[in-house]
Amino acid sequence: MKPLSKTQRIVAASSAAVAILLYLAFRPAPLPVDAGVASFGPLEVSIEDEGITRVIDRFTISAPVMGKLRRSGLTEGDSVKAGMTVAAILPPDQNAREYRESAALAGSASASVSEAQARQHQASVRLSQARLKAGRYERLYREGAVSKESSELAAEEASVLEKEALAASAAVEAARMQASAATARIDAGIAGKAVDVHSPVDGKVLRIVEKSERVVPAGTPLVEIGNPWLLEVVIDVLSSDAVRVRPGNRVWIEDWGGAGALAGVVKRIEPAAFTKISALGIEEKRVNIVAMLDKPEPRLGDNFRIQARIVTSQAGRVLRVPVSALFRGKEGWELFVIENDRANVRKVSLGMRGADMAEVLSGLRQGERVVIHPPNELEPGMRVAVQGK
Q1: Which structural domain, as residue segments, surrounds residue 296?
Q2: pLDDT value at position 266?
């Protein structure tokens, strides 16, 4: 074969250079994308929804007798002590039938005292058992026989039962006051003197139902009294979310008006759902989750709006990627992995999914970069350029 002349070699080299330049000039530019990195770290899965605060021990004090209600000098927010007079009613004289009714009501009130005392004893026994269990789990945790979560759940259960025992004691005192009022009804009807209605517990006046002087029938609500320092939080969530919540789950109260978040724990999940119309006009089945605050917050009151976050699961160290990098493929979850400045599709297996991050069980290694918020025009194998790189 005849060798190329010098001129031919120059022409060939020039043609190759022009071809390379044309390729570089007209090839598609890399698609700009945002990128994240697969890394190890903590992960928390939670449910966020609105809720309200509610006084645990709310007592609606009703008129024990029919008669003329005298005007009360109390106003909402006033502090009251157990046994303090909150209303006075002047009943009409009783006839024989009314006397028998009053006696029956007094007997019923006395039976209510016995029932409340039995519940108080039951709550006291449960609290003692819970304290023993919490102490035993604490020792087992220090010995490495149980997990830290089990020890914390036992301690939280004892804390919840302490509040229930306190509520049971208040219920006993309330029943005693009702019995005293029922007994006073008998004497007042005969003697023609006013019946004093007493507060069953220490607390504050939440609401005065009847503010004016008038004749009221027996059973008319007069005053609502409660302890605003003993609050519970009621969070309504979708029924599909409620099945993931368990008593003892950690709760964080946010957007309540003060600085920082308040800690609490789930006390119970109400067994019945209710229908609620969403802001978009959609009927939703929702369930009330009742939580207790770890520490009382004096600035919160009854029926205050809050934003709550219920932690359903958490892990201290897992491989995680941003949720915005994931999308559904033909065979499950996939994402774009950036390799040699190209975006390649990778199938992954997921574990826990939080609001911002998701746990990757397989298909990805620590430190690999992934495309977050992949644009619609991104295709597998396409050249990409990370923005802000």
Answers
A1: 46-53+230-314
A2: 94
